Structure formats: C-alpha cells, structure tokens
Amino acid sequence: MTATPTTAAEVxxxxxxxxxxxxxxxxxxxxxxxxxxxxxxxxxxFTAIMGPSGSGKSTLMHCMAGLDxxxxxxxxxxxxxxxxxxxxxxxxxxxEQVGFIFQSFNLVPxxxxxxxxxxxxxLGDGKIDKDWVHEVIETVGLGDRISHRPNxxxxxxxxxxxxxxxxxxxxxxxxxxxxxxxxDSRTSAEILxxxxxxxxxxxxxxxxxxHDPVTASYSDRVLFLADGQxxxxxxxxxxxxVLDTIKSLGD
Amino acid sequence: xLKLVVRGIRANLGRLALTLIxxxxxxxxxxxxFVLADSLRSIFxxxxxxxxxxxxxxxxxxxxxxxxxxxxxxxxDESIIADVQALPEVEYAEGGIFAFEQTYSLLPDGEINRPxxxxxxxxxxxxxxxxxxxxxxxxxxxxxxQVALDSSQATAGGFxxxxxxTMSLPTGEPEQFQLSAIIDFGDGGTGGAxxxxxxxxxxxxxxxxxxxxxxxxxxxxxxxxDALLTAIEPLLPADIEVVSGETVIxxxxxxxxxxxxxxxxxxxxxxxxxxxxxxxxxxxxFAILVGQRTKQLGLLRSIGASGTQIRLMVLIEAVIIGIVxxxxxxxxxxxxxxxxxxxxxxxxxxxxxxxxxxxxRTVIVVVLVGLVVTVLSAILPAIRASRVSPLEAxxxxxxxxxxxxFRLVAGAIVLLPGLVLLALGxxxxxxxxxxxxxxxxxxxxxTFIGVSMLSALFAGRAAGTLGIPVEATRGINxxxxxxxxxxxxxxxxxxxxxxxxxxxxxxxxxxLTASLLATFDDLLDDALTAxxxxxxxxxxxxxxxxxxxxxxxxxxxxxxxxxxxxxMFVDGEVESVTGFDTATGTAVINPGIVDGVAELSxxxxxxxxxxxxxxxxxxxxxxxxxxxxxxTTDLTVELIYDDRSxxxxxxxxxxxxxxxxxxxxxxxxxxxxxxxxxxxxxxxADVETVTNNFAQLTVQDNTEFQEEVEGQVGQIQIVISxxxxxxxxxAFFGIINTMALxxxxxxxEIGLLRAVGMTRSQLKxxxxxEAVIVSIFGALLGIGMGLLLGWAAVIAxxxxxxxxxxxxxxxxxxxxxxxxxxxxxxxxFPARRASKLNxxxxxxxx
Lengths: 251, 846
Ligand SMILES: Nc1ncnc2c1ncn2[C@@H]1O[C@H](COP(=O)(O)OP(=O)(O)OP(=O)(O)O)[C@@H](O)[C@H]1O
Ligand SMILES: [Mg+2]
Prior knowledge:
The complex is a heterodimer.
Chain A: E1 13-24, E2 31-42, E3 46-50, H1 57-64, E4 72-77, E5 80-81, H2 87-97, E6 98-101, H3 113-123, H4 130-139, H5 155-168, E7 173-177, H6 185-202, E8 206-209, H7 213-216, E9 221-226, E10 229-235, H8 239-250
Parallel strand pairs in A: 3-8, 3-9, 6-7, 7-8
Antiparallel strand pairs in A: 1-2, 1-4, 4-5, 9-10
Helix pairs in contact in A: 3-5, 4-5, 5-6
Chain B: H1 2-11, H2 13-51, E1 57-61, E2 76-77, H3 80-86, E3 92-96, E4 98-100, E5 104-106, E6 112-113, E7 120-124, E8 134-139, E9 146-150, H4 151-157, E10 164-168, E11 175-185, E12 194-198, H5 200-206, E13 212-213, E14 215-219, H6 225-232, E15 240-244, H7 245-292, H8 294-302, H9 307-346, H10 360-386, H11 404-427, H12 433-487, H13 489-527, E16 532-536, E17 543-544, H14 546-552, E18 560-570, E19 573-580, H15 585-588, E20 593-596, E21 604-608, H16 609-615, E22 622-626, E23 632-641, E24 651-654, H17 655-658, E25 666-667, E26 669-672, H18 680-691, E27 697-700, H19 702-745, H20 747-755, H21 760-796, H22 809-836, H23 839-843
Parallel strand pairs in B: 7-12, 9-11, 19-24, 21-23
Antiparallel strand pairs in B: 1-14, 1-15, 2-13, 3-14, 4-7, 5-6, 5-10, 8-11, 9-12, 10-11, 16-26, 16-27, 17-25, 18-19, 18-22, 18-26, 20-23, 21-24, 22-23
Helix pairs in contact in B: 1-9, 2-7, 2-9, 2-10, 2-19, 7-10, 7-13, 7-19, 9-10, 11-12, 11-21, 12-13, 12-21, 13-19, 13-21, 13-22, 19-22, 21-22
The complex binds adenosine-5'-triphosphate and magnesium ion.
C-alpha cells in the first residue's frame, strides 16, 4: 500500500479546528491557551506540532481529540462537530475514531498487552479485527509478550503498546502528546519509524506534539505554535530545517 | 511536626470523616447504653420513692425458703392490722393484698383489655391516704362491687366513671363492677402498667384468698422511724417482720436496677461488638493512608525525620480522630438515648418522664473507649509507617507487603487459640453455660481476627474466582472490577472483615434460632400428645387449678391434665418440682418413660434419668421431701423418665399431693385430649366456653402452639439481628471508605480509561462490581463463620434446650444478597465521584 497522492482539490480532513479558542480560569487568572486557531489535519498525513512550553500544544490536541471542550470556535473529527456531542457521544467518538498516546502512564496495570491493546474495542461492541490486532502487536515488536503485564515491560515497550492500542481500532486520527518524550533516542527512533510506516503504508493519520527537531523530522509537516496561535508551518522537515525555524521564531 | 499532622488530616478530611463515622457509631452505642440505663434507673428510683413516700414502715411475711407462688407475695392473717393500728406511735396503717396478673377488665366485645408488655396489677385500696401512692383523677374510692382503674386502662376500654365494667377473675366467673374512680400515680400515668383496685374484702374474695393480706403499710406521723419499728416489732408472730420504708424503697430500686443492669449490659455487649468491627475499619483506613503516603513519608525520612517521629505523627492523627469521634459519639449517644426515652413515653404507654442522666462515668468511659480503640487500631499502620525507608521517596510504586509466611504465622498464632477456646466451649469440661459461652465469645473474637489475617492469603484468588461470573456477564467492566478487587488482597481482606463479622453474628443467631425451632419441632412431635393446651401465653403465669376440673367435667374431653410448678425440699435441697395429674398426664405429654409406671401413687416420685443416676437412685428408693407448708414425708421413686422438654424439672410428684401443701393452688399448663373420632371443632368450642371466663388464657393446638413459639423466637431473632445490623452499617462505611481511597489511588488509571473510551456509566459499573465482589467475599466468609459459630453455640448449649442443628438456607441466601446490595450502595458515592472526574485532571493527577 502506498500513500495516495492528493491535490488541493480533493483533500479530506481527518480532523479540523475552526477559530479554536480556549480560555482557562477567569478574571485575573484568565489564561488564553488558544487564540483562534484554524487548522486541518489531512487524512493519511503525519503532522508534528512544536512550540515553546505553554504555547498551547497540549490544549489544542486535547480539544481536538475530544478530551476537553473549546471555549469558542469548533473542532471536527471527520465531519462531526465535537461541540454538538454530549459526554457519552464524545466518549464513543474517542473510543472509535480517536487514538491517543500520552507521554507516560498509558496502560491499565491489571491488563496484559493484548488486553490493553483491545481495551477501546472491549469498552465498545468488542468487534475488532483480531488478525489486525496481532499484526499491529507483531509490528511493534511485542509478539512474544502479548500476555505480559505493563509492570513486566520496559518504558519503551510500554509506549509501543500504547501506539499499538492507538492504531488497533483503525481510528480516524491518532494524537500523541510527546509520545517519545521519556525514551532514549534509539527507542524513540524505532517507535517513530513505526508511526511513519503506519502513515505511509496504512494511510493512518497521526498528529504528535514534540520538542525535539529530530522527532519532528519524521513527520510530513510541522506546525509551529506560539502563544496560542499557529505562527508557521513547514512541509517535509529535516532536523536542521526545524532547528533553524525554531531559532528564527525565537528571535 | 504538628503542622504536618494537621495538614495530613486536612488533606484527607473526607476519608477521615468516614473513619470517624465508624468510631462514632460504636462510641455512640456505648454512650447511649449508659445514658439510657442511667436515666431509666433514675426514673424508676424516683417512682419507687414516690410510691412509698408516706410509708414509714411495712409489715410483711419473712420470705420463706420455699415459695411456689412465684410473683405473688406471701400472705398472713389480717388480724394484725387492728393491733398495729392501735399503737399510739402509728398515725395511719392500711393492710392490703396484691396480685400480679389476676384480674382484667374486658372490652365490650368480651376481649381482654391488657397493655402490650407492662403487667396488670390487682390490689386492695382503701382510698387516698398518707400511705397510698394513688390519687383519684375522678370519682371515689371503690367499695363493695366497685372497681377503680388507672386512666390508661379506662381510656383503652372506653370506660367512664359510673359505667359497669366486666372484670375477668381468677375464679373463672367474670363479674360486673361499677367504675367508682379513675386513678393514677401522684404525678399522672402509671408507667404503662394497668391497676385494678378493689376494697380489701372484695379483693380477698376475688383472689379466693380468705382473710389474709400480704402487707401492712404504716405512716408514723411524727414518730421517729426506729421508734416505730421498735413499737410494731413485739406485736408480730415469728414469721412476720417489719421493715422501714427506706428498706422497701431500697429493695424495689435494687430489683428494678437489676433489670436495668441486664438491659444496659446487653446494649453494652452489642456496643462492644460494633466497636470491634470498627477497629478493622480504622485499621484499614490508616493502613491505606500510610500506604498512599509512602513517598511523602520517605521524603520526610530522607530529610531527617526519625522513625519515632513518623510513628508519633500517625499516632497523633489517631488521637485527634479518637477524641473528635468520642465527643461526637458521646453526644450522638445522648441524642439516641433521649430519642428512645421520648419514644417510650409517647408509645401510648405514658412512660414516666425524667431528666437524662449523663454521669461523669459515662463521659470518661466513652472518651477513653473511643480513644483507645482508635489508637490501638492505628498502632500497626504507625509502626509500618515508621519503617518506611528514605529510599522509598525515590523508588516508584510497589510498596512492599509483608511476606506471606509472616501473615500465615501471625494469623495462625491468633487463630489457633481462638479455635481452641471455641472447641473448649463446645466440647470442653467447663461448668456452666455462661463460662462456656464466654469461652466461645473470646474464641470467636480471636477467630475473627485470625481469619481476617489469613484471609489476605486467599482474598486475591477468592475475589478473582468470585469475579469470574461478573467478567462473563459484564465484559470488560466486569474484568476490570474483578482485577481491581483482587489486586490488593490485604485491602480486600480487611474491607471484607467488617462485613464478615456482622454477617457471621447475624448468621450465627439465625442458625441458633433455626436449631431452636428444629429442636422444638421434634419435641412437639414426640413430647406433646395433647389435642389442645391451655396456658397464659403472655408471661407464662400460673392460673387457677379450677380450670382443670371445669374442663374435665365437659363431655367432649377425654383426658385433662394440669401441671403445677412447686418449690420443695427434695432430699434436703430446694428444687423446682412438677406436680402432675398422674392418671391423665401421660395422655397429654410423653416424658419418655425409661422405667417404672406412668401412674404415680399419691406418695410416688418420678426422677429424670440423669439426675437419678447422679444421686444413685433407682425404682423403689425412698426420698425425704418437705413442702412449702412444712409438711414432710417420704416419697418412693416409681418412674424414671428421659425427656425434660415439656416437663422442664428433674422431679415430678403427684399433683393430688402437692396441691394440698401450697399457698395458692394453681397450674401453669393444662393439656386436653378428645375422645377418638370426636369433632375437634365442636370439642374446642366447648373448651373455650370454659377458658373464655379466664380472659388471660390461650387455647392452642399443636400447630398454633408451634406458630406461636416460632413467632416469639422469630421476634427475638429480629431484635438481636436489628442490633447487629449496626455492625453492617459500620461495615458499609468501611466499604465506602476503602472504595473511595482505591478510586483516589487509581485516579490516573481512571483518567486513562475515560480517555480511551470508557463511558461514565461503564466506570460506575466497574466500581460497583468491584465493591460487590469484595462484599460478597466478606458475606461468604461471614456466612461460613456464622455457620461455624452457630454450630459451636448449639453444641455448647445444653441438649435439653437445643439438641439439633438447623440451617436456615433461605436466610443465608438473603444475607448473601444483602452483602451484595451493601456493596452496590457503598459503591454509589465513590463511583459517582470517579465518574465526575475531569479526564485531563485525572490523567495529570500526581
Ligand atoms: N487546566 C488548566 N488550568 C489553567 N491553565 C491551564 C490549564 N492547562 C493549561 N493551562 C495553561 O494554558 C497554557 C497552555 O498550556 P498547554 O499545556 O497547552 O501548553 P504546552 O504547549 O502543552 O506546554 P508544554 O510544552 O510545557 O507541555 C499554559 O499557560 C498553561 O499554564
Ligand atoms: Mg504539553
């Protein structure tokens, strides 16, 4: 399978935000985490989000993944406006259409590897492509560990399980908030490689937040956020070009 | 350091508040028992003082060694009244006769008018006087064919002064009396009891007593109390004495006090059980809190806090909780006592009112108990806290549990003596049911602790097994519930313990009840052969033996046998002996004849087989006896029997003989058989024409008797279980507490589950099922322990009382369901809280 070449006319958005704003607190303690961000994540693309600490990266992802609600503006998964969904529908959306990889503590300690991977589908109707699950687990290199518990796995292995879980339901989009932030560079490289293959070979859509230019270079496109706004974007990044852009933005 | 303690308490306010509740419940129970008992005692003391306010001296018969008439007083000739009255030292004297439950007013429909619980007194009354405790509300003192009734009775019967009231009399011939007065005690009401007052001659007549009285109450005016006694003394024959009013009041107060002590001690006993259960809850909470703070404690250690300081920190926390709980419990108990007292007095019983008695003893004991229980329960967690190593501040997760071997050994060390004591109580060579039961009680407490400790060894696996059906039916929610219930076996075990104890006790009581009833069923089948029995069902009191003759005279009855209970010397010792109509007795009951003839001769004696063996008596042995009236004779053993279930006594004599030598010729029980092929309904109707004249009597056949006893036993079971339900309440709070702490501990996990698609209701269901698994585990342990304890008690209790083990299967199922329901309800608030967690906050929870 190869990535379908797209032209501007036939772009489909896996997820999209329209003038997204998020305000925390009120009065004196008011923080504008997002200030009217409009952005689309193209289906079958790997996007990285970068920006200084506190620039609103996590907030953007949370709101777009249906983990939090916008103060104004709207966020869409596929064609669905998340703002119109109630808690139950939002939960269902997360379960079926979204994959999420946190920086750490991604797994339920009492469940083994397969069970963690199939957790979202088990929480739903339980219908899942078993072969696909095993293929994903094989691919992340945990085929011989399927019945291990999280505390029997290394940090890198745990993150790989998290990636496998995010992909197992074939969601519309996968979000990762610094998914490799806690890992050494070799383990990071393996996981990022796998994520890129999921995009290239399987047409998966992935968005990830990172602070590391090398990590960002695995993506197709990098968005730069500062002070709650998108300030720049870059196609086909390399570590050097990313670093240059960060420096230029810093000035 | 105190600052840390205060911070710690504040940070865990919710948890500690729940812990507080479990201590408060136990402490309140203790405080309520004290306050209620003290208040009742003071009220009854006041009543006694009021009742004898004008009585300076009382003349009465010396209590003889033998008194078959039970509650009724010993009577003497009325001629002494005049002698006493004639004394210059005496201002006023009144001789009277008094009886317990002998006359009753009848309602217009012929039904008996009697209060539920309190007794009915029949007494002579000479009208208002310095020695009378009654005051007239309306009307005049009774004379001749007149009666005075207390106001509650008059109200219940709808009687007004001047009305004709039909009174049921012990002679069996109801009579009409004119209501001359409505009376009450000085300050209104009669404490729920009914009083039927007649003039002296009438009272003597209706009690069939001749010219006798049972007391003379004397007012000495200005005469000194001692001088009054000295003046009266010489007038009295040998077996009559005079005592001061103070003595009488003291005796009365002591008698009431004895009842109240028993009542108070029973309540205290339950309070101790509740406190015992609370101990596990407090222990568990502290253990979890210490566990959750391991990192913080490690940090404190690494910056230089000593183990002792840490231990002190936890203990100070316990002391603060203990004190707060004691104070809240103290007031809670006072509130409950006040409420109960209020309930007594408004229950239509016109229970006398009085101030609540809060004695210093109550305050001291209650505060000490609350404090000691809390601190004791916190000691183990405190020691564990002080053992936290500084390294634990940096090490993640995995706080180390005590080794299984340690638990096994420690649990066994507690459990074994417990089982030994249990076994000793059951099979051991211990004298007396009381010490047997004590041995079983202490054994049970140790067994509970031991089982609780050991149950941690298998709680994980057990919860896992119990969770299998939950997982099968509830899918992933069930799976997570099952995992969570079994992931911390120690916590599961400690949480389940509280429920285990409560249900074990309730089950034990149910087993005892079922065994009692099973024994009773057997007994009825074997031992009771009568078609009908006649007895006083309310208090089991004696009634006139004329009932026997009247029933015998009926054409429709075949055999009629009366049973009397008399006190007499048998071979030099005071014994309770059954007087038996020997010609007909074995037609209505079966005493289990081992040897000899059923029909005793006039000087015949029947002896229970074990007693006969003990004393080395056999058929033909002559035994010296002495009756209440001093009559002595030799009786010959003519019958050995082995079933004491109906004839409770170890000796039976011929009633023809015994009735001649007692003051009051009464029977306790009459059995009737009908001729073969008789129309049972018609025969019964005939019997009732006789018994209807004795309003207090109940006529029952085998089935009705069985139902009656089952109802009574059932009621006792309900009361006991009701008190034990408090243990379940404490266990309930314990489960809430543990669930809340577990939810808190798993905040991040919950956030993650919600993030990957768990709905709120799925989360609630997970938590609910976890609680259900834990509580079912506790319930199963409890039911198992209850069966063991019930069985132990059945074996410890003499066979003459309970000889057969009955297992209340239906109730056991109900208890299991109750256990599950407790889990569901206890999970409600923790589950609701968990489901309201903000997903992102939860995930970033430290
Ligand atoms: N729950 C919250 N309440 C109040 N303010 C918040 C909350 N979450 C985030 N913020 C604020 O919103 C702003 C954006 O936060 P966000 O977590 O999105 O930043 P980020 O770009 O992910 O930073 P980092 O790289 O450090 O993770 C920050 O100023 C932060 O302090
Ligand atoms: Mg962030």
